[in-house]
Amino acid sequence: MGTLPVKDHEDTKRTNEIKMAIPLLDTVDIEGKDVTADALLTQRKIAEYLVTERHAHYHFTVKGNQKSLLEDVAF
Q1: In a domain, 63, yes or no
Q2: Domain of 46?
Q3: Which end of the chain is flanked by fewer CB atoms within 10 Å, N or C?
């Protein structure tokens, strides 16, 4: 667990990476940009946020621990 400098988010400053991703991304201009993330942040909520709220694109890593997702994206 770490502390990140996210303005006006005192309640989420001390939490895990998943809960900090959106508040941290809120501080950066990402419209039209590509955002990459490792398997930990491959979350539906983060993907929807990037596309619908921030108009950004994403490239997420998918691993075997998300079997149905891995099967869905396999070639």
Answers
A1: yes
A2: 11-73
A3: C
